[in-house]
Each structure stands twice: as structure tokens, then as C-alpha cells.
Design goal:
The protein is an alpha/beta fold. The protein has a single domain, classed as Purple Acid Phosphatase, chain A, domain 2 (4-Layer Sandwich). The protein is 17% helix and 31% strand. It contains five helices and 19 strands. The strands form four sheets. The chain has a seven-stranded mixed beta sheet with strand order 1-2-3-4-5-6-7, with helices on one face. β8 and β9 form a beta hairpin. The longest helix has 16 residues.
């Protein structure tokens, strides 16, 4: 299976915006933002209220496809702290059924801080997690972990944005530096931030990982020239 060696672990970035960790039979996901539509509805922004069930169904399908035994959700699993109470019965039931075979660990994010997730859903709730040589957190730290360790996070919803043959193209991506990795958002109703944004500059030299078909493309994060991010011929993979 295509993948990368990160902190001594073989990890597989998936086109479904999740990370598969074969040795632990674990899926790592970030930023589900469940119940975002209902949160926006409370402010008068009316969207179809099906984001949660779609996100949950995709997570369940992925767990079954890989026969996962663990799911690590790296924060902002809900869009606000009251989200777990609003989760539709069908989505709640699907997660409880999945938990018969899969252990859930929920890392607290900034959106779902103080949310009583485990009052409504199975699993454990924590701040940060240490699993083997990996630190699982919501927001990438300003300084990388010690040598031999790796950090995996979410929060930024990274996307790679380029102009190719007259088209503006954006695609969710993984962002990788020497000891830190940022996952794309898994949730159905999520936007994204340019992977070349200054918000992620503290990672230092970094590249975008883009699973396409059976290949894993690695694109260095390009500099700005004439207002555009440039990735050379590699930009063509985004148009596939």
C-alpha cells in the first residue's frame, strides 16, 4: 500500500482525507465538524441538514473497508460544544454500532472544547494523545517534537491551490514537514486553507501529499510569483 515512513511508522494517506496506520489498524481523521449545518441554521444560514450523516456514513464505510480497530479523531469532531446533543439519531446509532468493533479516541479541538462528546458517543475524550512514536494533537505545535517522534494534527483544513492551463484548482491535501503532519478536513461541510499559507509557515520546509488513484504525489509547497503559487509540472496531477 502506498505510504510514507514517518517517525518510524508506516502511514498511508488516503484519498478519502484520512490516514491509515496499518500497524495499529487505526484510522486517523481530523475536523469532522459534525452538526455544522445545524449550528449555522441557528444564525440564519440555512443549509441542508445532512452533513453529519454523510460524514458519519463515510467514516463507517472507511472503517469497514480497512477493517479498522481504532479511530483517532483529532479535534473539531463537532462544530460547537452543543453539537453532540443535536446529532441526529441515525448518525448516533451508526457510531454506536461501529463502536462494537472499533475503539474511539476523541481529541478535543477548539470548536468542540468542553463538549460532552463521551456523554453521547462511545470512546474516550482527551487533550493530546501519545501513541507509540506519534503525538496526536489538534493544532500543530510551534516547535516540532524531539527527534525520532512525529506529530499529527488537523485544524487548518489544508488545501493546495494552483493555476493550471487557465484553471484555478483547489484540492484537499496532507501537509508534511520533517516531524509534523497536518491532515485535511474529513467533514463533509468544511472549507480549506491554502497549504502555502503563512499560518503553517512555522512547520518550515514542507510538501503537500496528494493521493490520486494508486499514486501518492508529493509536491513541494511553492513560493509566490506574480500572486500565484507555482508547483511546476507537478500541478498537472491536481487536474486529474
Amino acid at each position: 500500500m502506498r505510504g510514507i515512513d514517518f517517525a518510524g511508522q508506516w502511514l498511508c494517506p488516503l484519498a478519502e482525507h484520512a490516514l491509515w496506520w496499518p500497524a495499529e489498524r487505526a484510522l486517523i481523521v481530523a475536523d469532522l465538524h459534525l452538526e455544522k449545518a445545524s449550528a449555522l441554521a441557528a444564525t440564519g444560514q440555512m443549509l441542508p441538514p445532512y452533513d453529519s450523516i454523510d460524514t458519519v456514513n463515510r467514516l463507517v464505510g472507511l472503517a469497514r473497508q480497512y477493517d479498522a480497530r481504532q479511530i483517532f479523531a483529532l479535534g473539531d469532531s463537532f462544530h460547537d460544544k452543543a453539537g453532540p446533543e443535536r446529532l441526529p439519531p441515525a448518525a448516533r446509532a451508526a457510531l454506536h454500532q461501529l463502536a462494537q468493533h472499533v475503539a474511539f479516541a476523541w481529541v478535543e479541538g477548539n470548536h468542540d472544547a468542553n463538549a460532552a462528546i463521551t456523554d453521547h458517543l462511545p470512546g474516550v475524550l482527551c487533550g493530546d494523545m501519545v501513541v507509540g512514536t506519534l503525538n496526536l494533537v489538534h493544532i500543530a505545535r510551534e516547535t516540532p517534537p524531539d527527534a525520532g517522534r512525529g506529530e499529527i494534527s488537523g485544524h487548518y483544513h489544508p488545501k493546495i491551490r494552483v493555476r493550471h492551463r487557465g484553471q484555478h484548482i483547489a484540492r484537499p491535501c496532507f501537509v508534511l514537514s520533517e516531524r509534523q503532519m497536518i491532515l485535511p478536513a474529513f467533514g463533509t461541510l468544511t472549507g480549506g486553507l491554502d497549504a502555502a499559507s503563512a499560518a503553517m509557515a512555522h512547520l518550515g520546509p514542507r510538501e503537500a501529499l496528494i493521493p490520486v488513484g494508486s499514486a501518492l504525489h508529493r509536491l513541494p509547497i511553492g513560493a509566490v510569483r506574480n500572486g500565484q503559487r507555482h508547483y511546476g509540472r507537478n500541478a498537472a496531477v491536481l487536474a486529474k
